[in-house]
């Protein structure tokens, strides 16, 4: 993308301009950006820059067009704001007296975590519009815009400064007390300050809607609040109001589609997303967002089809290889998934690689039986994002397959300690790792947690019996007996055939315990008879039934 943009400035683009409308204003282009019609907006900004090459506002809002697109599309890709930065810097070089591109450059730096450098750029912008600057004068709107855009950055970025955002918005209100966009941003700040109470935020959004009856953005925000509160009818109502104001306001259709999907109303969801695509006819970014939407909606087969359709015409969108790999994994297709993730790694720069890429690569390798390679990738994922403690579970299971039990124990304990997505499978894997390491007491403790979490299933009882057999190998204490008994009570009659080996193991234990340890020949005979029903050729049962003491005993089952 960067090379394409640079070429735009290097070569004469008069041939392109001949195909563009000279009647579009900057406000028209901004409206296209706000409607997420980014390609159409780009054409408009190209035209504006050709007509007014020294107007810094044109460069700033062209940069904003890329900035907003990157943020919206960042669900499954690392944010790369290089394209936006190019235009902010070009705007500064063409019109250094315009403060707004310093704000743009500061935003990029802030999102990259370079807060000191970002504030330096913000300071430059503020100084230019300061009353002490006698070399230039600015309108109230220009001054307010600087404050608003700085506040927006402090509010929307991951590393927020909500107090500073509020300070800048209060300054903006002094310049433009009736600007609805300021109240929208104030609502955004209030929502970030208190996510559990939307009343203050919605008040600001409604104030914006009162100031501008045609503010689609205000109606969209109100709808998003209702969506967040799972009041889906009210959310749709506000999105419909935005559409009635401007039928070409694409985000309202996208939001409606997502609301319908949340409500499991799939047909209207697809209809609204198709309308979104229709408004963005020919838009690559819209089609990419639709593919992402399908993935997030767990429509993996449809996501694969949408991605493949895009890639027939355009193979330059690197992140689609990622999404394709993820979708193949969810469909259980590790072979094609590995091809897709290999293509992604071959094309992506290090800046674009996420922890989830190593995660899915590891899971795909494990699913294809390449556990040694899977282990390396899962370790890389955990190293890249230490908060993903749940990945230690996948790592532990891969290590189990390689019989690396000490490492598996370490990984599985980290997964459980992390507390994320812990279930009986984690305790089962940990118990097995301890069991195969001959740490029978710890194995029993792990299997006990299965019984605590799922007392209704037989697994925990069976493996507690195995662990206690390990603790009591000659069965003198009968430690395994109560757990085998509980296991048999949990097995449903229709499940006995598929669990026959374990059921036989239980009765063999009973036979040995009663016959050898307890000398309870009646109980031993019952166990032996049950064994012969399950396994007519069972040698232990046959031998016991020939014993004179057992022959004399009477078993009434």
Provide a descriptive summary of the structure in words.
Among the domains are: 1-96, Serine Threonine Protein Phosphatase 5, Tetratricopeptide repeat (Alpha Horseshoe), CATH 1.25.40; 457-552, Alpha Horseshoe (Serine Threonine Protein Phosphatase 5, Tetratricopeptide repeat), CATH 1.25.40.10. Helix content is 73%, strand content 0%. It contains 32 helices and no strands. Helix 8 (115-129) runs antiparallel to helix 9 (140-156), helix 18 runs antiparallel to helix 19 (319-330) and helix 19 runs parallel beside helix 21 (355-367). The radius of gyration is 33 Å and the shape is elongated. The model is unreliable at 1-22 (pLDDT under 50).
Entry keywords:
single chain, 557 residues, mainly alpha, Serine Threonine Protein Phosphatase 5, Tetratricopeptide repeat, elongated
Summarize the SSE layout with pairings:
Layout: H1 2-10, H2 14-17, H3 26-34, H4 38-51, H5 56-72, H6 82-94, H7 100-111, H8 115-129, H9 140-156, H10 162-175, H11 180-193, H12 199-211, H13 216-228, H14 232-245, H15 250-262, H16 266-279, H17 284-296, H18 300-313, H19 319-330, H20 334-347, H21 355-367, H22 371-384, H23 391-401, H24 405-418, H25 424-436, H26 440-453, H27 459-471, H28 481-490, H29 500-518, H30 521-534, H31 539-546, H32 548-552
Helix pairs in contact: 3-4, 3-5, 4-5, 5-6, 6-7, 7-8, 7-9, 8-9, 9-10, 9-11, 10-11, 11-12, 12-13, 13-14, 13-15, 14-15, 15-16, 17-18, 18-19, 19-20, 19-21, 20-21, 21-22, 22-23, 23-24, 23-25, 24-25, 25-26, 26-27, 27-28, 28-29, 29-30, 30-31
